[in-house]
Amino acid sequence: MELDSENLPRHVAIIMDGNGRWAQARGLPRLAGHRAGAEAVRAAIKTCRRLGIPYLTLYAFSQENWGRPKAEVDGLMRLLRRYVRSEIEELHRHGVRINIIGALEHLPADTVRLLQEAMARTAANEDLTLSIALSYGGRPEIIRACRLLARDCLDGRIEPEAIDEAAFGGFLYTAGLPDPDLLIRTGGEHRVSNFLLWQIAYAEIYISDVFWPDFGEDHLQEAVRNYQRRQRRFGLTGEQIVQGRAGETKSR
Ligand code: FPP
Fold first, then answer.
1. Closest residue (by CA) to atom 22 of ligand 1?
2. Is 135 helix (H, G, I), strand (E, B) or coil?
3. 128: which strand partners?
4. Angstrom distances, CA of residue 136 to CA of 115, 141, 217, 249
5. Cα-flanking dihedrals φ and ψ of residue 129, to 5°?
6. Taking the CA atoms of the chain, what radius of gyration do you get in angstroms?
7. Distances in Å between the alpha carbon of 119 and those of 78, 129, 139?
8. What proportions of the chain, in percent to the nearest 5, are helix, strand and coil?
9. Could you read off the pLDDT tens digit of each residue along the chain, which spans 252 residues?
10. Are strands 182-185 and 11-15 parallel, antiparallel or unpaired?
11. What number of other Cβ atoms are within 10 A of residue 138's Cβ?
C-alpha cells in the first residue's frame, strides 16, 4: 500500500528505545548503540522531510536517564554536542527548525549554549520542526506549567476560571506545537515512560520490536502506513466520523 499524502500524521513523536540492547547483541559498549542511534535520527529526519511530515519530536534523554552511570551520561552529552555541531548546517540548509524541550537547566552549560545557538540559528525555518526532548519528564513539565500558571494567577495576569486546555498547553515546553498524532516506541516495550503525557491524549500508538539503531526509513514508513489504516474517532461514533464531525472536537 502506498502512503496517502492527504492523511499523513502532522506530528510524529518517537521514544527511541533499544540502543543498549542493540549494542549488547553485538558485544559492543552501550555508547556504540547510542552512536548508531544518532545515525537512525538522521534517517528519521530525512524520512519526515521526504514525506512532508512537519513536526518530529524525539525522546533523546529523559529525566530518569540522569541516574545512568556517569560514563554513559557524559558519553550521551558528548554525542549530542557532536551531533549538533556536525549536523546543524545541513539541517539549516534543509529548512529544519531545532527546538529543544525539557529541563535545560540541568544540562552542562556548554551544551546549553550550543543548543541555544542551534535554536536561534534555525528559528525561522519552516519545513520541519525537530523537537529534541532532553532532561525531559512529562510530570515535571506539568508541574512546571502549574507553577507558572499559579504565579500568573497570583500576579493577576489570569483568572483561575479562564484556565482551559489551550491556556494550560501554552505553559508546556511544547507550546505552539500541535499534539502528536502518532507516537512510536521502538525496542518492543509497551510503556509511555513519562513522555509527553499531556500531549499524547489522542495520539495513535505504534510499538515496534525493532531496536532504535535499526529503525530505518522503511520502518518509519510502515508505522505511518499502519497509522493510515486506523480510524481516529476522538471519542465519537463511527457514523459521526463519516458525517465529518470529528474535526469539531478535534479543534481542541
Ligand atoms: C534508549 O536506549 C535511548 C537513549 C536513552 C538515548 C537516545 C539517544 C540517541 C538516539 C542518540 C543521540 C540523540 C540525538 C538526538 C543525536 P536504551 O539505552 O535505553 O536501550 P536499552 O533499553 O536497550 O538499554
1. 18
2. strand
3. 96
4. 15, 8, 26, 29
5. -95, 110
6. 19
7. 18, 11, 24
8. 50, 15, 35
9. 689 999 999 999 999 999 999 999 999 999 999 999 999 999 999 999 999 999 999 999 999 999 999 999 999 999 999 999 999 999 999 999 999 999 999 999 999 999 999 999 999 999 999 999 999 999 999 999 999 999 999 999 999 999 999 999 999 999 999 999 999 999 999 999 999 999 999 999 999 999 999 999 999 999 999 999 987 777 888 788 777 765 544 443
10. parallel
11. 21
User: 65 C-alpha vs ligand 1 centroid, how far in Å?
Assistant: 10
Pocket test for ligand 1, best of 16, 22, 58, 185 (most atoms within 8 A of CB): 16
Under 8 Å between Cβ of 95 and 129: no
- Is 79 within 8 Å of 61 (Cβ atoms)? no
pTM of the model: 0.94
Could you tell me whether strands 128-136 and 182-185 are parallel, antiparallel, or unpaired per DSSP bridges?
Answer: unpaired
* Residue 213 CA, closest ligand 1 atom number: 10
CA angle 33, 182, 6 (to 5 degrees): 125
Ligand 1 close to Cβ of residue 16 (< 6 A): yes
**The three grid cell numbers given for residue 10, joined into one nine-digit string:** 502532522
DSSP per residue over 153-187, as a string? HHTTSS-GGG--HHHHHTTSTTTTSPPPSEEEE-S
What is the spatial distance between Cα 62 and Cα 183, in angstroms, rounded to a whole number? 16
Identify the residue whose C-alpha is closest to ligand 1 atom 15: 60
Q: Could you give the residue numbers annotated as active site? A: 17, 65
What separation in Å is there between the alpha carbon of 150 and the centre of ligand 1?
Answer: 35
Q: From the CA of 59, give the closest atom in ligand 1.
A: 7
